[in-house]
Amino acid sequence: MTDLLEVRDLTVHFDTEDGLVEAVDGVTFNVRSGEILGVVGESGSGKSVTALALLRLIRPPGRIVQGAVRFEGTDLVGLSEDEMRAVRGTRIAMVFQSPRTALNPVLPVGRQISRLFELHQGASRAEGRARTIGMLKLVGISEPERRARQYAHQLSGGMCQRVMIAMALATSPRLLLADEPTTGLDVSIAAQILELLRELGRRTGASILLITHDLGVVAEVCDRVAVMHAGQIVEVGTVRTIFARPLHPYTQALVRSIPRIDRDVTMEPIPGTVPSLLAPPPGCRYADRCPRVLDVCRRDRPALRAATPNHDVACHAVEVEDATARG
Amino acid sequence: MRWRRLTRNRLSFGALCVILAVTLTSLLAPWVAPYDPDNPDAEATLVSVSMRHPLGTDVYGRDQLSRVIHAGRVDLLVALSATAIALTLGSALGAGAGYRGGWVDQLVMRGVDAVMAFPAFILAMAITAALGNSIANVVAAIAITHVPIYTRLIRGEMLRVRETEYAEAARTVGNRPHQIVLYHLLPNCVPPLVVQATLAMGFAILTVAALSFIGLGIQPPQSEWGQMTAEGAGYVVSGEWWLVLFPGFAIMLTVLAFNLVGDTLRDLLDPRMRGVR
């Protein structure tokens, strides 16, 4: 599989009154075409900011300090605002966390979709309306003609999320950024939405970047997963390896914190909280919470390196162990 | 509690009827008015309230009822155009300042502050005095003094709605800034705008009348409520009370109606403001 998206060393800072917040720090990852990459991490670990940065929608006081975002062979960071707008509408789309508030309350939901056809593909109003009905059908909304005329507050949460997905897929993007798309939906609806995303991803060949804090969601739908902690990616690998053989202490803690009923394992919460991103100390940002912390962890920031093929980790402790194992 | 809200609604329903009645008679003035408002009648000067002249006649024998009806035309037209202009201009400035922020915001808001530094009526007086008092200039004067109201309102609303998720969503699908503002955000600011415009209509009518009362607004022979009140004021001592009473009453009734409807709209659209004055 080839890489659709290649993010190198992406760094986003927010210049707040209290000082510089390093929200995303040297993030490097790639999304292959057709795959679903999960990005997991606690609240405030920089997942959503990363997604917005890919679309170059970080607004002041935030800004992309450095890094490259290669998408379909072009570096998005270097594009003009006009060129970027064309990418936003047609090549990369986003599904939001709370669909009810992400839909405009004063516009009928169908109108919000049909406008995209007019905006980006020069469709006529009637044509846009017809294709909107088609999109609503595609995402499994019954009575699409009636629903298209309704407003967000008249639809259920799950229905709103379906509309959001229809909107995101309207212009057949190659990459879909889904920012916690199932938060706030009840479990059975959430499962339907995830299934819908996976199914539509497969059918259209679009890649999906699925942001979530729920490892269960990752296990269910993702191909690979990137673990984020305090604005940095600490481990990347296939879902199978990450769950079966997590290397980074943080990932291990995350996996252990999943409630299990099939096995007699006590659920262990992760000690401490995400460290402040306001002028963080040098070295590994997990050091203060890490049970395997070494002296070097507080001095140098560990780089992301391949532990095995297709499994990258950024941890000094893991490197030391590998070195000893090899003798 | 219940009967109070009921009377309140009945009151505003009555107010709405008054606005409709005044608007209709103004629109249909040439057909509704019993006489030509500018036609003097030497045979019937300063006639009191009577069957032939329900609101009496003035010193030239012109029919007071016809003049009041035709005056409403001017008052409503001036107030409405001034409100429309101020609303458009103010919303555009407020939207730009609120959405764009930064130096645009600074520039617009300092300009607004400068306008607001003058008492509105004094500023309106100065503008008509400087430009000359044609109808267009009265409209301009009132529009300029009303622009800050809408600018501040829309700027505040923009600061709120631009942070919403649907604004973010509109950005992620590649809308241009002006498309986001016009298509996605401004429609969300309409309710408070309607309330403000209704209340400002009453105030605009009052300002036209006041300007004309002191001779800086609509000029005779065109009849206008404020200017008729001013003319009539001179006759109060000599007993011709109808000359000042009826145009004054017209001003009061119309302004009151707009204020009542505005207040009720505010209550309906924003229940949190209920009971707050």
Largest sheet of chain B: none
Q: What structural category do the secondary elements of chain A indicate? A: alpha/beta
* Mean pLDDT score of chain B: 88
Could you give a short account of the major beta sheet of chain A?
8 strands, mixed
Helical proportion of chain A, percent range: 25-40%
Number of domains of chain A: 2
Poorly predicted parts of chain A: none
CATH C-level name of the largest domain in chain A: Alpha Beta
Instruction: Indicate the proportion of strand residues of chain B.
Output: under 5%
CATH topology of chain B: MetI-like fold
Task: Summarize the SSE layout with pairings.
The complex is a heterodimer of chains A (327) and B (277).
Chain A: E1 3-16, E2 19-32, E3 36-40, H1 47-54, E4 62-71, E5 74-75, H2 81-90, E6 92-95, H3 99-102, H4 109-121, H5 125-138, H6 144-148, H7 157-169, E7 175-179, H8 187-204, E8 207-212, H9 215-221, E9 224-229, E10 232-238, H10 239-244, H11 249-256, H12 295-299, E11 305-308, E12 311-313, H13 316-326
Parallel strand pairs in A: 3-8, 3-9, 6-7, 7-8
Antiparallel strand pairs in A: 1-2, 1-4, 4-5, 9-10, 10-12, 11-12
Helix pairs in contact in A: 4-5, 5-7, 7-8
Chain B: H1 2-27, H2 29-32, H3 64-100, H4 102-117, H5 120-131, H6 135-161, H7 165-172, H8 177-185, H9 190-213, H10 225-233, H11 242-269
Helix pairs in contact in B: 1-3, 1-11, 3-4, 3-6, 3-9, 3-11, 4-6, 5-6, 6-9, 7-8, 9-10, 9-11, 10-11
Give an overview of the whole structure.
The complex is a heterodimer of chains A (327) and B (277). By secondary structure, chain A is of the alpha/beta class. Chain A has 2 domains: 3-91 and 173-326, P-loop containing nucleotide triphosphate hydrolases (Rossmann fold); 106-172. Helix content of chain A is 37%, strand content 24%. In chain A, the strands form 2 sheets. Chain A has an 8-stranded mixed β-sheet, sandwiched between helices. Chain A has a 4-stranded antiparallel β-sheet with strand order 2-1-4-5, with helices on one face. In chain A, helix 7 packs parallel to helix 8. Chain A is globular and about 70 Å long. The two termini of chain A are 35 Å apart. With 277 residues, chain B is mainly α. Chain B has a single domain, classed as MetI-like fold (Orthogonal Bundle), CATH 1.10.3720.10. Chain B is 72% helix and 0% strand. The longest helix of chain B is centred in the first third of the chain and has 37 residues, at 64-100. The radius of gyration of chain B is 22 Å and the shape is elongated. Chain B starts with a helix and ends in an 8-residue tail after the last helix. The chains are: A alpha/beta (327), B mainly alpha (277). Chains A and B meet through helix 2 and helix 4 of A and helix 7 and helix 8 of B.
